[in-house]
Design brief:
- The structure holds 2 protein chains of 2 kinds.
- Chain A is an alpha/beta fold.
- Chain A is built from 10 helices and 16 strands.
- Chain A folds into 2 domains: 243 residues, Aldolase class I (TIM Barrel, Alpha-Beta Barrel), CATH 3.20.20; 63 residues, no CATH class.
- In chain A, β10 and β11 form a beta hairpin.
- In chain A, α1 packs parallel to α10.
- Chain A is globular and about 60 Å long.
- Chain B is an alpha/beta fold.
- Chain B is built from 10 helices and 12 strands.
- Chain B has an 8-stranded parallel barrel with strand order 1-2-3-4-5-6-7-11, surrounded by 4 helices.
- Chain B starts with a strand and ends in a 21-residue tail after the last strand.
- Chains A and B meet through α4, α5, β8, α7 and β11 of A and α3, α4, α5, α6 and β7 of B.
- Chain A: Pfam families: Peptidase_U32 (PF01136).
- Chain A: Forms a heterodimer with UbiV.
């Protein structure tokens, strides 16, 4: 049985240190620009910050993975090249890429730099994954959050690389890397700019009856009654109306978080090589608590003990959690 | 350089007879030069038209059209993987790829890259061209500046470059069927409810503002892309093919208008006015091309002589 690595998010150098101290096997983070899909104000690393952070992690035996998981628009490819070059120079343990040309550049210019295929590449079949492995020497695939455990087990047996699955955090239903909803409403692209429902376009409006509308540019993404807690207006988590329904409904998915903690033994049994915790945009306290809880759980399972998993529901979006696609395909 | 109008794949689940009638009329009356066929969105829909496909293709070819077969866009389960393999193994057909899984099979065989595959930059274009891609249909969200850079490289590589100029634009794909969800069903027991919405199901905001259109696992723009007035500019940038997407409006009229403007037989201004007389029940949009929000209508730039 393989002991899966615990892959933990770091939006800032402080969060990185917290994740390392809490027992992460690897942390993942990005640069302060469009080369990563969480290009938010106040988040991510400058090159000097990354250099220090890599040293901090490596001294403690923790790996550092860099997300270069956006798609360079034509004419701007140099920014991504520079990011790949910086990763190689700083001795990071792997880069997580989505774009074919970024993968090709890394393979040809830095053949020793390990490549992981981002979930943004949307490789959801053995054939797609094998293509990336053959073409670019990809060593690990981060799986889209759309597969059941039994599908993952079948996949692990068929593909020539390691598999990483999400176990906790954001649970979006759009195929990642194939969504331009944000660009449709705001003019900023998820794939090109790393923006998803950008904060600058968000408005909260309270009406005379104390209802709260959450808006993205001109569109009302959801409306909450006086006793409801208003969520962030992410397009695929909003309530809409259609002819088939009376009143608003979550047309895509509820504001809900993935929590696969009960399924860790099955995932380990399926041969998964790494567990990923989502949340580079989350606080240092969040990172610390979630990483520590999953460290404990994975170690207990590997020692043949029943895992005691802390209650994490308070940390989830909308305080609601789901096992996502993992348990059954009925959610489709 | 010559410019050609094409008819993209029908994204919607129309009854087989409606599709047959539609393509027969296209063969007889539409000026499009190339027709893309095949189910792109949902593998469950495939059996309904599969057996008609070759005869439709033959009919279109007899009418002088080039026919291209498109792959599925989402390939996850065994049925989809088998469909994709069979699709990739057919001989003597031009094939358009909408999922990277197909690239495994088509390496070093000529093929086209579809408008649902992520090609954002000239380096990715060059890489794929080096492995056999001869033609690139672009994502709807690409702005003019990106198309300009891709146009330069496409000319150097000698590959075709195609942009969608009419119809709802694809914005997102999912593994979940949102049509089934709206009707409180799942993908496995959907009973093909998507057939009720031949141009997609409108999603309105809580303020009753139309926003998006649902087509099974796909989310489309509520607005219809209309880049008629930008076609001359795009030709100058190196775009060679202009894609009109099938809808239930009068597609003979739509394709004739776009072809008349593309070939210089009609002013764009007149074409735009006539397009607005066809009773299409949604706003026209062109924001993506002009670097604005996709749902916007931006006054088109002055046409650049080709």
């Amino acid at each position: 049985m393989i002991k899966p690595e615990l892959i933990c998010p770091a939006g800032t150098p402080a969060a990185l240190r917290s994740a390392v101290d809490a027992g992460a096997d690897a942390v993942y983070c990005g640069f302060q620009n469009a080369t990563n899909a969480r290009n938010f104000t106040g988040l991510n690393f400058t090159v000097p910050e990354l250099e220090k952070s890599v040293a901090y992690a490596h001294e403690r035996g923790t790996k550092v993975l860099i997300t270069l998981n956006t798609f360079p628009p034509a004419g701007k490819f140099d920014l991504w090249k520079e990011a790949v070059d910086n990763c190689a120079r700083l001795g990071v343990d792997a880069i997580i890429v989505a774009d074919i040309a970024v993968a090709h550049y890394a393979k040809t210019h830095h053949p020793d730099l390990r490549i992981h295929l981002s979930v943004q590449a949307a490789a959801s079949s053995p054939e797609a994954i094998t293509y990336y492995v053959k073409e670019f020497g990809v060593k690990r695939i981060v799986l889209p959050r759309i597969m059941t455990v039994s599908e993952i087990r079948g996949l692990v047996e068929e593909i020539p690389c390691e598999v990483e699955t999400f176990i906790f955090g954001n649970h979006g239903l759009m195929v990642e890397g194939r969504c331009s909803l944000t660009n449709y409403a705001t003019g900023l692209s998820t794939n090109m700019d790393g923006a998803c429902s950008p904060a600058a376009c968000v408005k909260y409006e309270r009406d005379a009856d104390d209802n709260m509308s959450t808006k993205l540019c001109d569109y009302t993404i959801d409306r909450f009654g006086p006793n409801e807690t208003a969520g962030y207006p992410t397009i695929c988590k909003g309530r809409y109306k259609c002819d088939a329904r009376d009143g608003g409904y979550y047309a895509f998915e509820e504001p809900i978080s993935l929590n696969a903690s009960d399924m860790l033994p099955e995932l380990i049994n399926a041969g998964v090589h790494a567990f990923k915790i989502e949340g580079r945009q989350r606080s240092r306290a969040y990172v610390k608590k979630v990483v520590a809880a999953f460290r404990e759980a994975v170690d207990s399972i590997m020692a043949g003990q029943e895992p005691k998993l802390a209650d994490l529901v308070a940390l989830t979006e909308g305080q609601k959690q789901t096992e996502g696609a993992l348990k059954t395909k009925k959610w489709r | 350089m010559s410019a050609e109008l094409t008819l993209g794949p029908n994204l919607f689940h129309w009854p087989a007879q409606q599709k047959l009638d539609f393509y027969n009329r296209i063969a007889d009356e539409s000026p499009v030069g190339t027709v893309y066929l095949g189910e792109v969105i949902c593998s469950k829909r495939t059996p309904f038209f599969e057996k008609e496909l070759d005869s439709v293709a033959e009919r279109l070819e007899r009418a002088g059209k080039k026919v291209v077969y498109c792959s599925l866009s989402e390939v996850v389960i065994k049925r989809e993987r088998n469909l994709l393999r069979e699709w990739a193994e057919q001989e003597g057909r031009d094939l358009e790829v909408n999922n990277t899984a197909a690239l495994l099979y088509l390496k070093n065989r000529p093929h086209r890259i579809g408008g649902l595959l992520n090609v954002y930059n000239e380096e990715t274009m060059a890489y794929l061209a080096g492995e056999g891609a001869t033609h690139f249909a672009l994502l709807p969200e690409l702005p003019r500046s990106v198309i300009e850079a891709l146009g330069v490289r496409a000319r150097q590589l000698g590959v075709g470059l195609e942009v969608q100029v009419f119809g709802r634009g694809s914005l997102a794909l999912s593994a979940r069927c949102y049509h089934a969800r709206a009707h409180e069903r799942t993908k496995d027991n959907c009973q093909f409810v998507c057939e009720e919405d031949p141009d997609g199901m409108t999603l309105n905001t809580m303020d009753d503002q139309p926003f998006l259109a649902i087509n099974g696992i796909q989310t489309l723009s509520y607005g219809y892309l209309d880049l008629m007035s930008d076609m001359a500019d795009m030709r100058a940038l190196g775009v060679t093919h202009f894609r009109v997407m099938p809808h239930t409006c009068d597609m003979i009229a739509v394709t004739r208008l776009f072809d008349d403007v593309l070939q210089g037989r009609m002013d764009a201004e007149e074409g735009e006015a006539k397009l607005r007389e066809l009773g299409i029940d949604a706003p026209f949009i062109n924001g993506f091309y002009h670097g604005a929000a996709g749902d916007a209508w931006v006054s088109p730039v002055a046409a650049v002589p080709a």
